Amino acid sequence: MLxxxxxxxxxxxxxxxxxxxxxxxxxxxxxxxxxxxxLLGILSxxxxxYRWKYLIHPLGYKVKFYNRMMAVMAGYLANLGIPRSGxxxxxxxxxxxxxxxxxxxxxxxxxERVADLLMLLxxxxxxxxxxxxxxxxxFEKNNINPVFSILLxxxxVIAGFWVIKLVRxxxxxxxxxxxxxxxxILEGMISILRMKNSAAFIFHTIFIWxxxxxxxxxxxxxxxxxxxxSLSSILVAFVVGSFAISLTNGGIGVYPVAVGAIxxxxxxxxxxxxxxGWVVWSTQTFINLILGGLSLIFLPILNKTx
Length: 306
Prior knowledge:
Layout: H1 2-13, H2 16-27, H3 31-51, H4 53-56, H5 65-81, H6 85-98, H7 102-141, H8 146-168, H9 176-189, H10 198-217, H11 231-245, H12 254-264, H13 270-302
Helix pairs in contact: 2-13, 3-5, 3-10, 3-13, 5-6, 5-13, 6-7, 7-9, 7-11, 11-12, 12-13
């Protein structure tokens, strides 16, 4: 609902001429660079599915690559409907078709997200070094406090560990099943410490985020008026877009407006900047819709015996 509100607000607040220009910028986007962005996005998803095996192997399970890939894409599709529901669906998919306990596979997903959070923090810190004033100006103007958001997430993680420890140490029989479930999650989470191929895991983590930035960066060549944007300004827009995605399901409505707003700081006209945001968002959403939908169709077909 919040995403729909932002879309309606963006359309209503623009003049007919501005809406016409925005639509022209979107429809005139260079299909070659849009296709390159699509390919880079798919590569990031393939790498994520491949990386997952390094967390699963220490648990004593082997999960087929195509099941890992389809679970990842089905999860992304679910996130477009209900934020963060994709992680649950992803774990439930592997638990159903590969007979891995849900709590253990879900623990590996949590570890994955922690690794991704660290990468995002590194990108934010790197961006602050080069574009501190512009990024700070945007956050202040839109009443966004990224430090508070990050600290809150860290506190929630610590609180989660504390709750797990509290329940595990409890002698009450009422907590028996909960203890077993939490023990499984914890086992899945610490699989990141048992990896034999930590270098490969780190490589894929860096590769995934490099593809995220690259698929964002190449779109600048697709939209008239954004071709001359520097890498540092693109990184600022990427960081802002990353925070925008967390506000709604898949960033719908918010993402293009946020990206367009920050690009205005670098002298890009609003319609050009929002067109940039819409092309990036719609390109990756298209991947999630198509591959996610196909995954839901083919998962039961390819796992008939399960």
